[in-house]
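STRUCTURE REQUEST FORM
Protein name: MADF domain-containing protein
Source organism: Macrosiphum euphorbiae
Requested output: structure tokens
Priority: standard
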Amino acid sequence: MESKLFTPENDEQLIALVRDHPVLYKLKDKNYRDNNIKDNVWKEISFSIGKSANDCKTRWRTIRDSYKKTLKKMKMGTGSAAKNKSKYNDDALSFLNEQEEERR
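Status: completed
Returned output:
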């Protein structure tokens, strides 16, 4: 049985594969709402990484949400002198910054 744990290398590979498939994150993509297409993309990604599609989706949400949370904290400021730093490579995730603002 495959391990559910993602190594930092798996995370980097996952980020790169998601970046190559805008249908997974770009709201204005014409196929964004087509779940069949997205499911097929997740199957491709899971095959490349060697993890299940559900594990890849869950890990992606964790990475994305952590990155967005860090960005939000940096915008608002926390009152401390220390800079907030994402656990993930900010440059690798910068493609998410180009997306529309969050819903209110």
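Reviewer notes: The mean pLDDT is 83. The first helix runs from residue 8 to 19.
Form closed.
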